[in-house]
Structures are given as C-alpha cells and as structure tokens.
Specification:
Helices cover 42% and strands 17% of the residues. It has six helices and eight strands. It is globular and about 45 Å long.
Length: 234
Amino acid sequence: MFAKKNLALALCLLMAGCAGSEKKPQAQAAAVPAPAPKATQAWLDDYEPRLREAIKGSHFELERRDNLLVVTAPVQGSFNPDRPHMLLPITLGPISRVAKLVEHDRNVAVLVLGHADSSGAATLNRELSHERARAFTAIFRLSGLKQDRLLVKGLGSDMPRADNGSATGRALNRRVEILLTRQDSLKALIAHYSQPATIPAVAQASPTAGSAKAKTPKSKPVAGKQVVAAEQAN
C-alpha cells in the first residue's frame, strides 16, 4: 500500500513538472515585443525633416498622423480658379521635390486623396476632387512610381476638416492630401479610405506649414495628366 502511494505521488509530481515546462515557452513568446512599431517610428523620424525641407517656401502643410506623414496642398493657390483641375506652376516645385524624395525608396508608398467642400452636387464634388488628386499623382508618375506604390482617390466632401458653413471653412476643405506610408501598409490604407461613410469628420487642425503662403502668379497653369492608379477613373 505504501509503495502504491509513493508511486502515485511520483507520477503526480512528474505530470505537474511536465505541464509547467510546457507553459514556459508560451509565456516567453508572449513577452517578445513586435518590432514593427519601432521600424515605423524610425521611418517617420527619418522622413519628417526631409519632407519639411522639400516643401519649404511653399504653402503646403505637413503633419504626422498616426503612422503616416501627410502633405496637404490647399486648392487655393495650387489650382487655376478658371480651370479647377489644372495645377499652377508654383505647385510643381514642392510636389516634384516630394516625388524625388520617394522616387528610389521602394519601402515608401503614396496615396493621394482629393477633397472638396459641400457646395454643389455630391457626384460632381467627388469627380472634381478625383481629378485634382490625379493632377498631383501625375507628378509622381513622371518620377517613376508605379501602381504598386501609388494610389489615388477622390473623396469629395466626405472628410471635411472645417465647418462648411463659412467661406473660410470651405476653403480649408478644398484640398489635396499626399499620404506617405510604408509600402506594406498601402493596401490597408486604401481599404480604410474606401469606406468614407465610416470615417468621422476630421476636426480642424493646425498643421505646420512649409512656410508663409506664396502669392499665386499669373502665369499659365499646367494641366495634370490623367493617371491610372489602383482605382480607375470613370
């Protein structure tokens, strides 16, 4: 009887020890941090000052938004008032420098978003915002970016950053945003912006501008070439 009890106790201790040893690797694996956030942070820290230098002296704005760097170009001063989807020459310098910055970096991708105010028909606003975004995208295409690194979308008035009830607010909402992200995040990013109904309106922010606003010259505007990206134009 005594021998049986000792045998049962030994078996119990042995099983408990094995169970404890099986749990240790799981605890160690869960404690290992994911390296992605650090890599993204390093990328943001590297690109932000270079982007700031690229848009220096322009009326473009730069902000860090979560894991993105966003360059915002207001429509006023960037597009011809009489031909609203045509870029002014003053816009070409800063956007070309941004395109040159990412040209040879295969780890960086670009999503260009066009925005409009709420004036007029929603369908026309969306089409116009898309055309304006494509005008910017043309510059990146000329620098060699392909569809795997360059996407374009017109959001119309779905994402205002100011109140459309005033002229100032509407001017702020008419803009083109250039979103720079890691190339492996591009598909998830375009999927996010393909659901505008689920995206809340962005509160008016005060991003840092490249510099004081430059006066719009009276020179001939440059037409933005039509660009075929992941989202086809109708």
